[in-house]
Amino acid sequence: MTKNELNDPYFEWMYRLVVDDRYSNKSYRRLFYKLHDTEFAYTIPMDGNRAEDGIELRYRFGREQGYRDAVIANCLDIRPCSILEMMIALAIRCEEHIMEDPDIGNRTGQWFWSMLVSLGLGSMSDVRFDPVRVDEILDRFMDHDYAPDGKGGLFTIRNPRFDMRSMEIWYQMNCYLNEIIREGSLT
């Protein structure tokens, strides 16, 4: 099996994890390809954990699809974590480790899309895709050149007690979740 033979099913698997019925009338494949082609570069050391989660997503795909770890290592685990992998892995971790509620169902896609919206990419469907604008947004995110409340980053909160730009992504997510829990705006 070659890298290309496995990369396409892996991409489709990731896409299906976070694109559900609410977004099925629009395609976001161009945006997702760009996110998958862009390395997740980080400057806050603990954000390395998010990159590791993104790498582990490849092996989760392998286990779920019946591929041996050696195949994943040789075909997928040959480059750094992408922004798409990091974001999907973070959405999964948010759902499975913090916010899981069997009465509500799986909200992995909800967590992912809230990150896209906070970044400013929520409306970037294929027909509205602007590669120059996406590059600017992703550069701003990775340079922590966004608002202190997180707008332009992965998580925007209304009442920040700390500058979100100086916090690792995990703590940003927890600030976001704490705020929506306090406000009772979970669905």
Description of the structure:
With about 190 residues, the protein is mainly α. The chain has one domain (about 5-185). The chain contains 8 helices and no strands. The longest helix is centred in the first third of the chain and has 18 residues, at about 50-65. The mean pLDDT is about 90.
Structure keywords:
187 residues, mainly alpha, 0% strand, globular
β-strand amount = under 5%
Radius of gyration: 16 Å
Order of helices and strands: HHHHHHHH
How far is it from the N-terminal to the C-terminal residue, by CA? Answer: 42 Å
Question: Structural class of the helices, strands and pairings?
Answer: mainly alpha
Largest sheet descriptor? none
Low-confidence stretches: none
Number of domains: 1
Helix share bin: 55-70%
> How many E strands?
0
| Overall mean pLDDT | 92
Number of helical elements: 8
* Overall geometric form: globular
Summarize the structure.
By secondary structure, the chain is mainly alpha-helical. The chain has helices at about 5-20, 30-35, 50-65, 70-75, 85-100, 110-120, 130-140, 170-185. It has one domain (about 5-185).
